[in-house]
Amino acid sequence: MTAADPALIALANGWAALSLLHGRIEAHIERALQARHDLSVREFSLLDVLSRQHDSEGGHLQMKQVADAVVLSQSATTRLVARLEGRGLLSRYLCPTDRRGIYTDVTQTGLKLLDEARPTNDTALRQALDEAAVNPDLAPLVAAVKAMPSGIPLPFRHSEKPSPGSSTSPC
Known about the structure:
This protein is mainly α and 171 residues long. The protein has six helices and two strands. The chain has helices spanning 6-37, 41-51, 63-70, 74-86, 108-133, 139-147; strands at residues 90-95, 98-106. Strands 1-2 form a two-stranded antiparallel sheet. The radius of gyration is 19 Å and the shape is globular. The N and C termini lie far apart (50 Å).
């Protein structure tokens, strides 16, 4: 393929449109969460992911799983966890059956803030999508996002089976 290849140009344009849509949505949500709840999009996402943990087998996420779910590196996720722990929104603990495993839970204060921030996040998401839908280049992507079924397994929904070779935690 050459740089003038129509298929490559279409792919590049599609990626640019998707990137633009993502950036606009994230910026809109960021402004709303910061203004009303002193939370970043990443902080909200982390609280949301961790709030979905459960006590059943495989219900507590390892830091790599958390990092994948919030689309950050493990080191950036660890720094984010430390920051939210400092604010009293998260707590960390050692797995009682595997002292090498460190897990994170949302505190009651964190759950309260998440519950307060969720409507802001949801409203900002809808607003950002509605604003983007008027742009003819973004409208098909907005339609695709709105058409997504709710049952799609995402890393933080715990509906996927562990991949071969991955470890499941008893914590």
